[in-house]
Amino acid sequence: MSASDTRLLLRTALAETTERLGRAEVPSPSVDARALIAAAAGTRQPLVMLDELPAGFARELEELTRRRERREPLQLILGRAPFRRLMLTVRPGVFIPRPETELALDLLREHATGAVETVVDLCTGSGALAASVLDEFPQARVLAVEIDTAAASLARENLERAGPGRGRVLQADLTARLPGGVPAQEGPLAELEAAAGVDAILSNPPYIPPEAVPRDAEVLEHDPHCALFGGGADGLEVPRAVISWASHLLRPGGLLVMEHADVQGRSAREAAALIGGFDHLSTAPDLTGRDRFLVARRADGAPNPGSERLTR
Known about the structure:
Rossmann fold; two-stranded antiparallel sheet; 2 domains; 11 helices
């Protein structure tokens, strides 16, 4: 096949695939069509750079297009998802990182006091926030915590790729035991408690209330429910556990940035005020102006909760 024939085939494939995805009500049919065509062609180059196509191109594109027509998320079809400067590996059964969560890194830079050298990512999922910290803060070491086995395994891969040897993942249920009282003697939560004195905590925990079932089939059918629903009548059981751990783990002046639903800004601030230990509480909006992140600073006058560091 000549180069001109290849380009004609690609133009035809782009038009037909875009039309099919549009009929399936895919939100960005043209963008997704280009991504599927590139995947079928086995390239990440711009399509205009292709002079030839593999023998199985048409068959592979048909299979990929059918999957997208059934509203399987594009990230799962491709096996990867962009996040900040990274291309993360994603797999079925693990929460797909969202662009709105990327703002947490900007808030960390804006509100952090002092060096950011030790960071904890609670409810890490695929490891998106933790891996981005390793990528953007070359001096940082990160401890990530995740309850799900498959997600924890994937997070280890993404962290090691982003910052070899500087990230660690614990598999633990943050709600199984809250900090305070007699410290745990062993297990992942004991390791987490021993890390007290960190510079920052980032978290995108599950926070959806039980009655707020997502309308988007791509979310409801492909994101694990344990990564969506936060527990309790208001969906804030897990976020409250995150805040409790942050109150224990942060050094004085350390920063918590936690994502929440756009209707939970006030509730999240009230939870942090009730748990205590913070001298700054605010809600940061996302790029559309909706309340999206709790920003909390550990009180400067509070005693240092621990002396053991992630750098040991």
